[in-house]
């Protein structure tokens, strides 16, 4: 049976349903018995959902502006003058 220290290394694969059936079953079995690891997995799922939502919600222009790389046309010298 897995121990708590094994869960962080296997958590993302478990959520993504990647890996062998034996590995996924071992994580599932541990989660049925361990409240702390179930709490860890809930937190990880929440973080992944929030991260995915933030990438979907942010437009490319907003991302560039946040990086200080926004509309560069305002910083170019005026070549018409």
TrEMBL record:
Source species: Methyloraptor flagellatus
Top-level taxon of the source organism: Bacteria
Name assigned to this protein: Zf-HC2 domain-containing protein
Matching Pfam families: zf-HC2
Domain Putative zinc-finger: 4-38
């Amino acid at each position: 049976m897995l121990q708590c220290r094994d869960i962080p290394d296997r958590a993302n694969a478990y959520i993504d349903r990647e890996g062998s059936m034996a590995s996924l079953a071992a994580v599932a079995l541990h989660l049925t018995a361990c409240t702390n690891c179930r709490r860890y997995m809930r937190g990880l799922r929440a973080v992944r959902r929030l991260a995915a939502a933030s990438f979907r919600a942010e437009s490319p222009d907003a991302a560039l502006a946040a990086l200080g790389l926004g509309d560069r046309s305002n910083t170019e010298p005026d070549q018409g003058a």
